[in-house]
User: Fold this.
Amino acid sequence: MESILNNNISAYPNIDWQLIAQAQSYYESLGYKYVETPWLVPTYYTEQTKPFKDKSFVLDSDLFENQNSELVGSAEQGFLYLIDNQKIPLGKYCSISPCFRTESYDSLHQPWFLKLELIDCKSTNKTSLNNVLLDAFKFFQSITNGNLEIINLANNTYDINLNNIEIGSYGFRTINGVDYIYGTGLALPRFSVADKIII
Assistant:
């Protein structure tokens, strides 16, 4: 894969920091408690959920008692670390973190981006999943006039698309005996790019 530095970093879309702050306020008003999650976790947690096996973001340092560590693919992995190590109780949360990904880069795929992640590990039934999905859908409705749709995938997993581009994923997971609902509250600059597309 081509080096990140060989790509034109200045051509990547900008992150709308005001929009991410607006998203945080919105979700907190719905009862999602904001928590700062670690941006670096033992690789065990990234291997459970990230969509790739590349080791580009593994760090050679001993921050976790002789465990390899990696920059997170999303705040979901930081939540897993906190919950699994009893740093926070089971609950309904949101967190903003950078996401580090190794992919083929273009306007929708950057080596790093920003995402507000939603986690509900207190109530993990179908109704709660629908609530998380609809909370995100209503937020997106409030900030775009584009074509939004909920896509029912399989096994209680869903995407929200904006102008035929996926801007969020939602579903159930179980890691180390902990059941939880995950969802995208807002991913930037992906949302902004999808919002500009005319279909």
Remarks:
- Helices lie at 17-29, 43-49, 75-84, 126-143, 190-196.
- DSSP finds five helices and ten strands in the chain.
